[in-house]
Amino acid sequence: MTGEPTPGRRTEPDRPALRTVRIAGIDVVDRTRRDIVDRAVDTVKRRAAAPTVMFALHVGGLNAAADPAFVELMNSADLVYADGVSVVLLGRLAGAVRMERSATTDIGPEIVERLASELGRPPRVAIVGGPPGLAERAVAALADRYGVVDAGTFDGYREDYTAALAAITDGEPDLLVVAMGMPLEAEWVRRHRDAVTAPLVLTAGGLLGFLTGDESRAPAPVGGSGLEWVWRLAQRPALASRYGRGALTVARLALGGDRARAGGPP
Prior knowledge:
Layout: E1 20-23, E2 26-29, H1 33-46, E3 52-57, H2 59-64, H3 68-74, E4 79-82, H4 85-93, H5 104-118, E5 124-129, H6 134-146, E6 149-154, H7 162-171, E7 175-179, H8 184-192, E8 200-203, H9 207-212, H10 220-224, H11 228-235, H12 240-254, H13 259-263
Parallel strand pairs: 3-4, 3-8, 5-6, 5-7, 7-8
Antiparallel strand pairs: 1-2
Helix pairs in contact: 1-5, 4-12
């Protein structure tokens, strides 16, 4: 069913709200990957006073959606998109017609590439997350590929981000990437949102490892078939528990016990 704007979610009178469907209590946009990238790029060009926050819903999020606090946290974003074939499947059952898999590992670089092409100057990117040194290597990889300017890079293991946020503000980023894994990255964004000046905030999970080459992407035929999770599992066997739980969660949501949560109105 079509979702109305979530209470507390920021709306923009000059831009139409995107149609959503409700999956496990979370309002997910019923849009293609290209639509989501277009929206992100347009957001940066507009440079609104308040940042637009985009979260990805993947199988790990589905596993956590039994917790009302996590659902509320996800719905605090301005836009939640489907990062995984399991989410798309549940979206179709909930009435989605345009939703498609939009992996952050795809749309993150696509957004940066589009900004490099359309801003008329090098895009400025700040990154928070990962162990010390990973964010720096990730933004260096983006600089090599797309000519981005480092607007501030900080690890995700700090007790206090006051100085980091001040430095990022001075860097005037077009895009702030927060990569700590869910729910930590979403909690970080909600906690520090009022101090963020970047027009676009993207949570990114494992994106940094892909950018730096620490983790390899699946071959195109595998990724295109929706089986990239098999490739990731081969590289990181520790994900087996997450994916196993995810299969049970998807089955439960799809087969009736939580059908109202999967497809009901907001």
